[in-house]
Structure formats: C-alpha cells, structure tokens
Design brief:
Blueprint lengths: L8 E2 L5 E4 L4 E6 L2 E6 L5 E5 L2 E5 L5 H22 L2 E8 L4 E5 L2 E5 L6 E4 L4 E4 L5 E6 L2 H14 L9 E4 L3
Antiparallel strand pairs: 1-6, 2-3, 3-4, 5-6, 7-12, 7-13, 8-9, 9-10, 11-12
Length: about 170
C-alpha cells in the first residue's frame, strides 16, 4: 500500500496555511488562494513550516482518505507557489489556435471557430499557432480544461491528426 499520507508537507516561505473549525484548509500564496474541505476524521497539525496529516485508525477507509487529502493539500501548496501547466499540440493542415485575453479561439476544421472562455484563475497562452498552454493554480481545473480542449478533436489513431497532449 502507498505511504503517501505519512509524508510531511513543507510549506515554503510566503505561503500561509489556515485550518478552520470545520476542517476547511485555506492556502494563500503568490499565485492565489485555494480552499479544500478535509474529512473531519483527518486531523491537520502544523509545526513551523511542516504540515502533517494524521488518521484516527488504520482501517481501510481512513488509510484511503489519509493519502487522498494529503495529496490534495500538497497540490494546493504547489499550485499557489509554482502553478500547474498542461501543453497541448494541434496536428493537422490548417489547424491553429489564438489566445486573446481570457478567450481561446481554435480553428480545427469545423465550419466555425471554437471559442472557449477561461474560468477564474486559468490563463491560456499560444506560443505558436499549433500549441496551447493552459496555466493555473488549481491542478484539477487545469487538467479538466485541458481534457475538454483535447475532446474537441481527439487525435485519430492512424495519422495522429487532432489535439493531443505534448509527448502523447
């Protein structure tokens, strides 16, 4: 079994972690603020810049929740300090993308361009016409948005035309 839950989380300088009475964890850093509710069975203890999560028993559900919430809190700390990125590439003749502000316009072979608005905390970048970079502090939002963009036109299995993750 995984021992992820036992690993301590190091909180870097410039990041504050607060835990409310209902186990709402709020992480504030230079890239934003993230909140997550942790199960009441899991206790959070902060000593200096080290954050640890503890479970009450060694039962299977408590072990699963222990690892899950440790990973979620760790992703929050990494997100507000460094942020997360997903890079997508478009392969195909005439396929191009353009990011302007919070909108992403994709020409992918349909009769109309596909226009996507970025949710709060997410930004789009297009270093060139066939590359899309999705950036944000919330790992789940970045991954879901990148998956939604990829679902517009999945890469077909023979020639690989479509939208794919970088190094896919």
């Amino acid at each position: 079994m995984s021992r992820i839950g036992k690993l301590p989380i190091t909180v870097p300088a410039g990041v504050t972690v607060t835990v409310d009475e209902n186990n709402f964890v709020t992480v504030k850093g230079p890239k934003g603020t993230l909140t997550q509710q942790v199960d009441p069975a899991i206790t959070l203890r902060q000593e200096g810049n080290i954050l640890t999560l503890e479970r009450p028993t060694d039962s299977k559900p408590h072990k699963a929740m222990h690892g899950l919430y440790r990973a979620l809190v760790h992703n929050m700390v990494v997100g507000v300090t460094d942020g997360f990125t997903k890079t997508l590439e478009m392969v195909g003749t005439g396929y191009r993308a353009n990011a302007e502000g919070k909108t992403l316009t994709i020409n992918i072979g349909f009769s109309h361009p596909v226009v996507l608005e970025a949710p709060e905390g997410i930004t789009y970048e297009t270093p060139n016409q066939t590359t899309i970079v999705v950036k944000g502090s919330n790992k789940q939002q970045v991954g879901n948005l990148a998956a939604d963009i990829r679902a517009i036109r999945k890469p077909e299995p023979y020639l690989g035309k479509g939208i794919k993750y970088q190094n896919e």
